[in-house]
Design brief:
23 strands, Purple Acid Phosphatase, chain A, domain 2, 487 residues, Immunoglobulin-like, alpha+beta
């Protein structure tokens, strides 16, 4: 099938006509270069983000080579249980970008011959790491869309690379159909567990065919080996992370939302005005928005059918310094975002509401941590949020950042917080608080991901992880289940 489909596309390219592309190729064609030697290629794949009922943003980067040079450092494919500072800086030419243009075709799945839509040829931006972020508009709610991305050197050149994929749009507000979404956090070069394929968890998550995915931040770690202390090194870490095979394949096929935290902004527990080596705070913010599909604001809310609405908070851009004394003026969210969060939650009539946050609101956290709403350093705003959430029916917190999985019930307000855990077991670097019976209904030192399923009006949470007997299986084990709220 691989040879047949690539041969078919070569024949299409030889007499290029966007209207003649066979849509079967969009589903079946593996990532390939159509025989091109010089590229450009799609070595970072595609990310589909900010999906709602009628629109999405397709992120694409053109590369000089088909894939990253994984052989440069053993840590790039072997990971490391320790920080390994002797590894040195991140190689800036791990997957160089390339100038060129991209063209996207897309269509809703279904029987018959659906209409095929296409964009113009769009140039990638050399000043933004050879990336284009392409809005897809006038989509239909509750649909699976297939797409095909083409790349070429420029006007007058034939396409050199084609990459197919798919994504789901959010159902209409009145749609009561089932929804399944997954959440994870914290992945690093040093926690890769599948060599050049990257993080095996992505293969497990893809096998569940979720409606959408949320990454709560720490997508890359600038301050963990190999270190990234300037713009070129920071970009190279992103280039590597999304060249890994499982990571790339997942994001070409799943609607995703990306959030940032400290390690993919600048450095551990950072706040505005700081620097890391030659990397400034402003550069960190800019690189994040460059490297993931992102709309106007990094805090947002999305409705998924009748039963589900999610809120994703921004916990870095507006925060006070961690060292400021606590009180009514000290904030992580900032006044505008906090007012927006409360107002939109109160206005929502979704049956289940999920506040997804880069850092915990309930905890308990590990000792000596002091940069989130469960800590003493931001206790005033944390209590304000807990008190507010407790007044909202069927409203739950999902948090990232912590390197362990858990489910907590706040003893004072009764709100539930679900810690999704890091991408895999290798990313548990210690420091967890252990099982706390006054809080925890579930606690695990392991990593993996959290799945939320709403079906027939009933919501359940499941914490997934690696099967210890079959560690490379695509089928994860369920470590714990909770039924959520009042059906």
């Amino acid at each position: 099938m691989k040879t047949t489909m690539i041969g078919f596309l070569r024949s299409v390219v030889s007499k290029y006509d966007p209207g003649r592309i066979c849509m079967a190729a969009m589903v079946l064609l593996p990532f390939g270069n159509l025989g091109a030697v010089d590229g450009p290629f799609l070595g970072n794949g595609v990310k589909i983000g900010e999906v709602d009922q009628n629109s999405a943003i397709l992120w694409v980067r053109l590369t000089r080579e088909p894939t990253a040079d994984f052989g440069r450092m053993p840590i790039l494919t072997e990971g490391s249980p320790i920080a390994r500072p002797e590894v040195g800086p991140m190689p800036t030419d791990i997957l160089p970008g390339a100038e060129g243009e991209v063209f996207i075709q897309y269509m809703a799945a279904g029987e018959g011959f659906p209409e095929i839509f296409g964009t113009p040829w769009i140039s990638v931006d050399p000043d933004r790491d050879f990336i284009a972020q392409v809005p897809l508009e006038n989509l239909q709610p509750g649909q699976t869309y297939h797409y095909l991305v083409w790349a070429r050197r420029g006007e007058g050149y034939q396409p050199t690379t084609a990459l197919p994929g798919q994504f789901k749009t959010a159902p209409a507000k009145e749609d009561a159909g089932p929804i399944r979404f997954i959440v994870t956090t914290c992945q690093a070069v040093r926690s890769v567990d599948a060599g050049a394929e990257g993080h095996q968890t992505y293969q497990q998550m893809l096998a569940l065919d979720p409606h959408f995915f949320v990454h709560t931040g720490d997508i890359v770690y600038y301050d963990k080996a190999p270190l990234a202390k300037n713009v070129a090194e920071a970009r190279a870490k992103w280039n590597l992370m999304f060249a890994y095979g499982y990571n790339l394949a997942f994001h070409t096929q799943v609607s995703s939302y990306f959030m940032k935290d400290d390690h993919d902004t600048l450095v551990n527990d950072c706040w505005p005005g700081q620097t890391y080596g030659d990397l400034t705070w402003e550069e960190g913010l800019s690189i994040f928005r460059e490297q993931v599909p992102m709309g106007e604001k990094t805090y947002r809310t999305i409705r998924w059918g009748r039963d589900v609405q999610i809120w994703m908070t921004e916990n870095r851009d507006f925060r006070s310094a961690n060292t400021d004394p606590d009180g009514p003026e000290k904030t992580i969210l900032g006044a505008d975002q906090k007012a927006w969060l409360k107002r939109t939650i109160e206005e929502s009539d979704a049956k289940y509401k999920f506040i997804i946050t880069p850092g915990p609101i309930v905890g308990p956290d590990k000792p000596r941590k002091n940069d989130n709403h469960s800590n003493d350093g931001f206790m005033h705003e944390g209590q304000e949020l807990r008190d507010f959430i407790a007044t909202q029916a069927n409203t739950f917190v999902i948090t990232g950042d912590r390197h362990w999985q858990y489910c907590s019930i706040d003893p004072k307000t009764g709100i539930m917080e679900m810690g999704c855990g890091p991408i895999n077991d290798e990313h548990n670097y210690g420091g967890d608080p252990g099982f706390q019976p006054e809080y925890h209904t579930f606690f695990s030192e392991k990593g993996g991901f959290l799945g939320i399923t709403i079906e027939n009006g009933i919501a359940r949470a499941e914490w997934f992880g690696r099967d210890p007997e079959f560690p490379m299986s695509t089928v994860p084990v369920v470590r714990h289940r909770e039924v959520l709220g009042n059906p």
